[in-house]
Specification:
Elements lengths: L1 H11 L3 H11 L4 H25 L5 H4 L3 H14 L5 H20 L2
Helix pairs in contact: 1-2, 2-3
Amino acid sequence: MGFLIGLLNGLFGAGGGIVAVAAFQKIGMTNKQSHATAVAVMIFLSAVSGFLYWYHGYVSVSDVLPYLPGGIAGGIFGGWLLPKIPDFWLKKIFSLFILYAAIRLFFK
């Protein structure tokens, strides 16, 4: 499962997180545990993928810098907010996000 998550992350950005959440739920983690663990795993996978994209010339540091402040602020806010969201709503929000992403990809 780890290989599949890493492969998806390398190919699609952080798309492996969706598979990671499902995998962690299958082994018995709660919704919040699986989302938090997936994010923790994605930090390292994204760092490796990002380095390889940079190394091969697909991205430059100047491309990334404008997004870092907002990304860091969003990550801090999301980490603060996750424990406050009831599991029922977390499932709904996550499902809507996946549905939105699927529809967007389908029509592009």
